[in-house]
Specification:
By secondary structure, the chain is of the alpha+beta class. It contains three helices and five strands.
C-alpha cells in the first residue's frame, strides 16, 4: 500500500511495476541488470481518488497518461533498482498530492483609474508616432 495523505492511500493492485534494462552509465553491469523501473498506476479505475482529482491528475500527467486511463512513470536515474523504485513512487505521490489540492478560484477585479489613464495615454502616444510616419509634404 502506498500512503499519499492521511485520507488517500493506493492499494497494491492499483500499482504495477515492471523492470527493464536502463541506458546510460553502468559499465558491463548495465547489460545484465534490469535497474530501470516503469510504475503504472491505474488511475481511471482507482477507487481511492474522486472524479475531480482524477481530472486534475490527468491534466497534470500530460504525456504520461495513457488512453486506457493509466498513469505511467519511468525512472532510470540510478544504478540501483530499489532506489529507482522509490524515486518513481515518490514522483507518483507528489503528482497525486498536487492533484488533491483544488485550484484557487480567480476573483475578478476591475482595473484602477490610474491604469486606465496610463493605457489610454500610451495608446495616444503610439498613435502620434504612427501618424508621423505618413508621407512628407514637400510644400511645407
Amino acid at each position: 500500500m502506498l500512503r499519499i495523505t492521511d485520507t488517500v492511500a493506493l492499494q497494491d493492485w492499483e500499482l504495477t511495476e515492471t523492470f527493464m534494462r536502463a541506458s546510460g552509465p553502468g559499465g558491463q553491469n548495465v547489460n545484465k541488470v534490469s535497474s530501470a523501473v516503469e510504475l503504472r498506476f491505474e488511475a481511471a479505475t482507482s477507487p481511492s481518488l474522486t472524479g475531480p482529482v482524477k481530472t486534475r491528475l490527468r491534466r497534470l500527467a500530460g504525456r504520461r497518461w495513457t488512453l486506457e486511463g493509466a498513469l505511467v512513470i519511468q525512472c532510470d536515474e540510478t544504478r540501483s533498482q530499489a532506489r529507482n523504485r522509490d524515486i518513481a513512487r515518490d514522483r507518483l505521490a507528489e503528482l497525486i498530492k498536487k492533484a488533491l489540492t483544488p485550484p484557487k478560484r480567480r476573483i475578478a477585479t476591475r482595473p484602477t483609474l490610474g491604469s486606465k489613464k496610463r493605457r489610454l495615454k500610451a495608446k495616444k502616444v503610439r498613435g502620434e508616432v504612427k501618424a508621423m510616419r505618413g508621407k512628407v509634404d514637400p510644400d511645407t
